[in-house]
Design brief:
The chain is α/β, with parallel strands linked by helices and about 425 residues long. Helix content is about 30%, strand content about 20%. The strands form 2 sheets. Strands 1, 2, 3, 4, 11, 12, 13 and 14 form an 8-stranded mixed beta sheet that branches. Strands 5-6-7-8-10-9 form a 6-stranded mixed beta sheet, with helices on one face. The longest helix is centred in the N-terminal third of the chain and has 32 residues.
């Protein structure tokens, strides 16, 4: 091919390539302007900066919520039996008040149980004899009227709950009962068993300790044949089966713990009657936690009763007398029941039950009546007890037999009593 032909071909090729080159140039310019062109070095720079920034970023720890540990509550409780102020009791109180500003002083008679009663969170007692006022005249058996100063001893000893539902509550008639209710309501304690009217009766007493609600009910089998006038607004809480059932069910709905005081049974009987057992069974079925029995003037068994919810009802059929000057030594042996209202994952239950025997000592002529813990009562005191004038000489063995026959050893942990229960060595409790 000659040079002329080669030159023509080169010119032709340039003419063909030039438009394509211009198109590529214009496309690159457009990419720069629209940001579609990616600068690799800039991209790497941005990635590097992002990594460095993330290295210094503080990633928060996941929040851990620690639930506060559940604190289970525990309330200690004590209950004592009948305070029966016979005339010899208030006459001795008058002697004790000699050279003081008071007319009567009952406090020394209770001094031996004060440490025990005042040590618990809540303490209950049955005030058998009413305080109907000095103007009605003080009197002992059979129609009682007790000096108001008995309240000083009750409060000083440490009792918080006073029950007046018993067979002597109408000894001084309707007006005497009303006065007794008003008097005890003015003493800064919780009164149960006395009601001004139907509304008052239907208002179940609920006390609260450390946020735990404790319902208190009280009933009596009768009032020695005495009745309120039909026009009276006062209410006697008789132990009608259906009524007890209704109120115990209501109490179970409004409280954590339900305690019922029962004035029931037959005097001088060491075993509960069929009526007592029937009422106790019904109350256990209704979820009552504790039944506190009195009236027989002697001690009766302490038992656990099964409940439908799988828990147990503590039933004390009779605590016997706390103070009186009845004729026989069997009536002087009583008891104080102590226990804990304990909380756990399943609610509340009754634990650490202890029956603490007591003995009322008086000298000849029913003089100087004083309560003793039975562990401190001696054979010499029993030998000289004023009751020996009314019965053949009763030894400590006689009283010990009453105690061991009525109260199962599981409710008496005091090693002082091991020997009379036939336990030679201290009872060892296996580790949990």
């Amino acid at each position: 091919m000659n040079n002329k032909s080669k030159k023509s071909n080169l010119i032709f090729s340039l003419i063909m390539i030039l438009p394509i080159a211009l198109i590529i140039v214009f496309a690159l310019i457009a990419m720069f302007k629209t940001g579609l062109f990616i600068n690799i070095s800039d991209k790497n720079k941005n990635i590097t900066e992002e990594v460095i920034e993330n290295e210094h970023e503080v990633i928060p720890e996941p929040e851990i919520i620690i639930e506060p540990e559940k604190v289970f509550r525990n309330i200690s409780f004590a209950a004592a039996g009948d305070i029966i102020v016979h005339s010899n009791v208030y006459k001795y109180a008058a002697q004790l008040a000699t050279d003081t500003d008071a007319e009567f002083d009952f406090k020394p008679m209770f001094s031996n149980i004060k440490e025990l009663i005042s040590s618990v969170d809540i303490a209950y007692v049955n005030q058998e004899s009413p305080s109907a006022g000095k103007d009605r005249g003080y009197s002992g058996y059979p129609m009682f009227n007790t000096p108001d100063e008995i309240a000083d001893a009750v409060l000083d000893t440490g009792f918080d709950i006073v029950n007046i539902a018993n067979n002597h509550m109408l000894d001084k008639g309707e007006s005497g009962l009303k006065r007794n209710i008003d008097f005890w309501n003015s003493q800064g304690i919780t009164l149960i068993g006395g009601f001004k009217d139907k509304e008052d009766y239907n208002t179940i007493r609920v006390i609260e300790k450390d946020g735990v609600k404790i319902a208190l009910l009280s009933y009596t089998y009768g009032t020695n044949g005495l009745k309120l006038p039909s026009s009276s607004e006062l209410v006697i809480p008789y132990d009608n089966f259906d009524e007890v059932s209704r109120q115990t069910k209501e109490a179970r709905e409004i409280a954590d713990v339900v305690i019922v005081s029962m004035h029931w049974g037959y005097e001088d009987n060491f075993k509960p009657s069929e009526s007592q057992k029937s009422l106790a069974k019904m109350m256990a079925e209704n979820g009552v936690d504790v039944i506190l029995g009195m009236h027989p003037h002697v001690i009766q068994p302490v038992e656990w009763l099964d409940r439908p919810d799988g828990k147990k009802t503590l039933c004390v059929y009779s605590l016997g007398n706390l103070i009186s000057t009845m004729m026989y030594s069997r009536n002087m042996l009583g008891g104080i029941i102590t226990f804990d209202i304990s909380e756990n994952e399943d609610g509340f239950s009754i634990q650490n039950v202890e029956f603490v025997p007591t003995m009322l000592y008086y000298t000849d002529g029913y003089n100087k009546p004083t309560i003793y813990l039975y562990r401190d009562y001696t054979a010499e005191m029993q030998k000289n007890h004023g009751s020996r004038r009314n019965e053949n000489q009763k030894s400590m063995d006689y009283l010990n037999n009453i105690l061991t026959s009525a109260i199962d050893k599981q409710f008496i942990s005091d090693e002082h009593f091991n020997s009379i229960y036939g336990v030679e060595e201290p009872v060892s409790i296996p580790a949990a």
